[in-house]
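Following up on my earlier thread - several people asked me to post the actual chain instead of describing it. Fair enough. Here it is, all 370 residues.
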Amino acid sequence: MRKPNTISRRLAARADGSANDTAALVRLVTRFPRARVLVVGDLMLDRFIWGSVNRISPEAPVPVVQVTKESAHPGGAGNVAANLAALGARPSVIGWVGRDAAGQALGRLLGALGADASRIVVADEHRSIEKTRIIAHSQQVVRLDRDGERPGAALTERLVRRVGRAVDGFDAVLVSDYGKGTIEPAMLELLGERRRRGGYLLLVDPKQPNFAHYRDATLIKPNASEAAAASGVEIRDAASLAEAGARLVSRWRSDAVLISRGEHGMALCRPGVAPRLFATTAREVFDVTGAGDTVIAIAALALACGGSLEQAALLANLGAGVVVGKVGTATVSRPELARAIEVAGEAAPPPERGRASVRRLSPPGKREAQ
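Reply from S.P.:
Thanks for posting it. Predicted structure:
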């Protein structure tokens, strides 16, 4: 058992009584621009080709897409930074790109969003990672991936040194692991060791190759399939969900594990208590691209601005419900998130007679299986 550091004790002491209080959540969102967040992870450029389909090709049984426009957005860890910027923060980013047009475009896009891209490593020996999605009538037709070679030892060492020099100046460090080689065991050991000193919040969006190396984070956010693979528990119902969450909290020595479960919402798992379940808020799903990036970005800002783990999970769940209703690599703004809070508060049942009239997003202590 690890000894809780200062931040872990502070989080455990935060009361969750206002976790469902609409006004308290809106006030928390207004504080987002104060947070200093560092994003460390796999950077990529997301290109989109938009068009319409009116016929099938005579050359092969495939649709012919008549192109109407093209766009590009930061992807991977870059999309996490874009989400943070859309919510009012000015994130800093550490990762790598190649010395090519895609790497230059990614740097320009991050800078235009207000993110600090000055710590990104430009690697002469690698090409930038690109993903090109062709979309017609709000539906993805095909995705084209251009992945270069994984970083070698020299580039990994440069990245670890750069992270080591930077981390102590931030409220929260957010690891966005897409399995492309930026996040290696040496990086995770450094971040975990520094976090054990109590210097910052550490949030991780995990990937399977590193399941054995995540340690001592504030919050780790796997999806349901990742949680099942990492815990060795097939998640079928409330009991198996609780078992998987308990195993991961213990194995990863984290303050919390937030399992995203698609149409079933999310589950917040912490030591010694039953999982807190959050039902999905999405009314219509067009595209799940980047929804996990939205979740981890909102959770990081909420915790960095003094929110509890339950408040962070609830806000992240509401933000995911907004972003999946958009097409492409999308983000959620502070006004959109505030509106989602208000809509959820209006939809909640009124308080029981004889109790304080506090508008809530869901009944206190609700633990229903999804």
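The two ends are 31 Å apart (CA to CA). That should answer part of your original question.
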